[in-house]
Amino acid sequence: ALRCGEGQSYTHAAACGATEELEAWASRQPAPPGFSWWETAAGASSSVAAHALIALAGTPGSSAAEAELVDAAYFPAIGALTVLLDDLVDREADAAAAEHNYLSYYPGAAVAAERIEAIARSARDSLAPLRQRERHAAILTGVLAHYLSSPQAATPLARPVRDRLLESSGPTVRLLTTMLRLLGDG
Q1: Which of 6, 24, 75, 122 minimizes the number of CB atoms within 10 Å of its CB?
Q2: pLDDT in the model for residue 186
């Protein structure tokens, strides 16, 4: 929760031009290799890890070691994925409101699509050691489908990311995305 609060604070400050401070803070976070500083910052500013840890705290038989595994699964991969997909569908609104958007650090839509797909793959892989991996996989599937079903995910800037994730995430994500789109949840 502390990491999330700090991440959100630095992210809001970056909207006012303090991107160097955000980068410096993100560079101090213990992320695994392969994540750029802004992907680490996105993962740190997501509240999804805190929610997963709160749920684990209420689970009989949970331990500190299990909490470390859950935290490692959610930070940075799952957290980054949630923030980057939120930024994907809010890109135009964020620009209009002069809000910070992590996608602006990618040099283009193709690179963003490649990196977000890699982060999604890392997120799926990070679930393997978890005791309740099916529950966490359902959360990940729901996150993907929620954002990919949004009408804003079909804009020219977002479409390469959406298409790549729908192709690589499997039939359950595609089915749920279609259902959400048809129900008008997107």
Answers
A1: 24
A2: 45
Nearest-angstrom CA–CA distance, 162 and 177: 10
Residues 6 or more apart whose CB falls under 8 angstroms from that of 77 comprise: 43, 119, 122, 123, 126
Token pair, residue 156, equals 């020219």
Judge whether 165 and 144 are in contact, CB under 8 Å. Answer: yes
Q: Model confidence over 97-139: pLDDT tens digits?
A: 988 899 999 998 889 999 999 999 999 999 999 999 999 999 9
* CA separation, residue 24 to residues 27, 82, 170 (Å): 5, 22, 36
In terms of phi and psi (left: phi > 0; alpha: psi -120 to 50; beta: otherwise), the region of 130 is beta
Helix (H, G, I), strand (E, B) or coil at 78: helix
Rounded to the nearest 5 percent, the helix, strand and coil shares of the chain are 75, 0, 25
